[in-house]
Specification:
Strand order of the largest sheet: 1-2-3-4-5-7-8-9
Largest sheet: 8 strands, antiparallel, barrel
CATH class: Mainly Beta
Helix content: 10-25%
Strand content: over 45%
CATH topology: Porin
CATH architecture: Beta Barrel
Distance between the termini: 30 Å
Shape: elongated
Number of strands: 9
Number of domains: 1
Number of helices: 1
Order of helices and strands: HEEEEEEEEE
Amino acid sequence: MKKLALLAALAAASLSTTAFAAEGNGGFIRAEVGRSDIDLIDDRDTAFSIRGGYFFNSNIAIEGFYANQYRVDTFDGDEAQLYTLGVGVVGKKNFGGDHKGFFISGRGGLAYTDIAYVDNDGDVEIDEENDNSANIYLGAGIGYDFNERFGLSLNYDYQKAEINDVDFDIRTLTLGGEFRF
C-alpha cells in the first residue's frame, strides 16, 4: 500500500510539473557561446556564459549569470580573464504559444565586471585592488523554442564596464541553448 501511495504521489508531482511548464512558468538554465568585442582591445575573443533563472510566466523572467568575455596570456605565463557576474530581467514574446515556435527576447540589469588571474596550476586569483563598479547590461535575441523544455537563440549583448577608473564597452554575439524545467 505504501508503494502504491508513493507511486501516486510521484505521478501527481510529474503531472503538476508538466502543467507548470505548459503555463510558461518555471526554472531555466541557458548556456551561450560566441564572440566578444571590447572597445579597448583590437581583437575579438571567444566568450561564453552560463545563465539561470525563473520564468514567472511565458513572457517575464529573472536571471543571474556568469560570463567570460576575454582571455589573454600574461607576461609570466599566467592567464588573465575578463569576467562578469550579473542579475537582471528577461522579456520574451513567442509567436507559437507559451515557449513554442519563433520568439524575440530582451534582457537587462546590473553587471559586475572584474579580472581574474589563472596560473599554470589552475589556481584562480581575483585582483582585489581593482576599483570596479556595477554597470548596466542590455541584450536582445531571436530564436526558436522546439517545445516547452528546449530552445535555441542568437543573442546580442551590450555592457558598460569600469575597472580602475577606465570605462569601456563590451559587445557580445552568442548562440544559446536553453533548458526549462
